[in-house]
Amino acid sequence: MFNIINLLENLRRPKILVRAARLGLSDYDRETDLARITRTSKTCSPAAIVDRLLSQEQNLEAARKTGDASYSVQRHIRVLTAVLAEAKLALKRNVKIA
After folding, report:
1. Residues 6+ away with beta carbon under 8 Å from 33
2. What is the CA radius of gyration of the chain?
3. d(CA 46, CA 58)
4. Residue 57 confidence (pLDDT) above 80
5. Cα–Cα distances in angstroms (integers) from residue 16 to residues 35, 77, 88, 89, in the given order
6. pLDDT tens sequence across 8-48
7. Are 36 and 84 in contact (CB under 8 A)?
8. H-run or E-run covering 55
9. Cα(14)–Cα(78) distance, rounded to whole angstroms?
């Protein structure tokens, strides 16, 4: 199992993308945003949610790097914001991410 802090520290993304995601934290609403982003129930464990979000984020990062026409920077920021918010919640609850 990985520690969430180590997982996020090893996530290498453009600074402007990370800054935008951090700015989005103040507007993040778990009730609405999480359901829209993951298309799943918010009753999942924080570990499962972070895992699903990281999977989506990795797909977006791959699309960004390859210049895929379907890439959406707005979606990437929303997903990164959710990753940060859910990781913060998991840290607060002392949950480990696999």
Report:
1. 78, 81, 82
2. 13
3. 18
4. yes
5. 25, 10, 20, 23
6. 667 789 899 999 999 999 999 988 888 888 877 666 777 78
7. no
8. helix 46-66
9. 15
Nearest to 75 by CA among 36, 30, 19: 36
Average pLDDT over the chain reads: 84
Helix 73-92, helix 46-66: angle, nearest 10: 150
For the entire predicted model, the pTM comes to 0.83
Higher pLDDT among residues 73 and 91, named by residue: 73
Tokens 């829209």, residue located: 36
- C-alpha 40/C-alpha 29 separation (Å) is 15
What residue has token string 């979000």? 53
